Amino acid sequence: MDKPKVNMIMKAPEEAYPRYLTALLAGDRAHCRSVFEAYLATDMDLRMLYQDLVQRSLYDVGTLWEQGRVSVATEHLATAITESLLNLVYPRLFSQPRIGKTAVVSCAANEYHQIGGKMVADIFELHGWRGYFLGANTPAPGLLDLIREKRPDVVTLSLTVYFNLETLLQTAAAVRKEFPTLPILVGGQAFRWGGRERTEEIEGVRHLGSLADLESWIKSPPHHAN
Ligand code: B12
């Protein structure tokens, strides 16, 4: 496929998107990379890039997979390409001055969807925080160990599949028990099916609906659980 031009993308993102998705499904890493890099070369907000290109394409891949129109292997291919592209944002993330705050970002045990959580960690980095990203399927004892070691200002838990809600609740309760004032943020697409009220029954746990809400939270200190 041809290398996309920055101007074309800036003027007409709708035109770039279908070809990006086609390339993602075809396993055409080179085209996907050039679209992604072209966006990064603009001053486009990282959050918009994550939502309008990355999230949108993976949600579409998920729908196609659910409808039996793409195979599991294709879905894995698309995910692997996406994860490799996310590393291209590093220079932008770490160019910001550090502000001495720390977030520990994780998924609940048994939660294998980690890309949303990775984006959360990146948003913290973008705002000068240090974002420790533990990835998928982190058992609660391991998370507690890391919190003891890093003494973060906040812990966030990402949930994609609703059947992992109980595990997330147990993890949040364990963190709360040992760290009574540490803020805990939860989010992810599983909450479209409910569960928000149950998480917020645990003191100092707050549900955030989007990366925009996360940015608002980051920009509105003081941060404390009570
Ligand atoms: C890739 C993928 C996988 C990969 C994940 C690999 C990886 N490295 O992450 C693998 C193969 C492991 C997988 C497994 C499964 N998957 Co899957 N998977 C997907 C897919 C296609 C993309 C996921 C993704 O990365 N999305 C993009 C990210 C950016 O979106 P996001 O997670 O929602 O995050 C955004 C927001 O929610 C938010 N956010 C997320 N967390 C947080 C936290 C905070 C604090 C905040 C503020 C914001 C926030 O920020 C992000 C940016 O906006 C989705 C389709 C979809 N709709 O997402 C299906 C999907 C999520 N999977 C699904 C299913 C059913 C499964 C399996 C059960 C399949 C199976 N039978 O084995 C297993 C479950 C495994 C488990 N125990 O977790 C279903 C879930 C349906 C449902 N109603 O719950 C989906 C929706 C597909 C579908 N359409 O049916 N999957």
Number of helices: 11
- Rg of Cα set: 18 Å
In order across it, which strands form the biggest sheet?
A: 2-1-3-4-5
List the bound ligands. Answer: cobalamin
Number of strands: 5
Question: Topology, pairings included?
Answer:
Layout: H1 6-11, H2 13-26, H3 29-41, H4 46-66, H5 72-86, H6 90-93, E1 102-107, H7 115-126, E2 130-133, H8 140-150, E3 154-158, H9 165-178, E4 184-187, H10 196-200, E5 205-207, H11 211-218
Parallel strand pairs: 1-2, 1-3, 3-4, 4-5
Residues 50-51, 54-55, 58-59, 61-63, 66, 75, 79, 110-117, 119-120, 156, 158, 160-162, 185-189, 208, 210-211, 213-214 line the site of cobalamin.
Tell me what you see in this structure.
With 226 residues, the chain is of the alpha/beta class. The chain folds into 2 domains: 6-92, Methionine synthase domain (Methyltransferase, Methionine Synthase (B12-binding Domains), Chain A, domain 1); 96-218, 3-Layer(aba) Sandwich (Rossmann fold). 54% of the residues lie in helices and 10% in strands. It is built from 11 helices and 5 strands; from the N terminus they run ααααααβαβαβαβαβα. It has helices at residues 6-11, 13-26, 29-41, 46-66, 72-86, 90-93, 115-126, 140-150, 165-178, 196-200, 211-218; strands spanning 102-107, 130-133, 154-158, 184-187, 205-207. It has a 5-stranded parallel sheet, sandwiched between helices. α7 (115-126) links the parallel β1 (102-107) and β2 (130-133). It starts with 5 loop residues before the first helix and ends in an 8-residue tail after the last helix. Cobalamin binds at residues 50-51, 54-55, 58-59, 61-63, 66, 75, 79, 110-117, 119-120, 156, 158, 160-162, 185-189, 208, 210-211, 213-214.
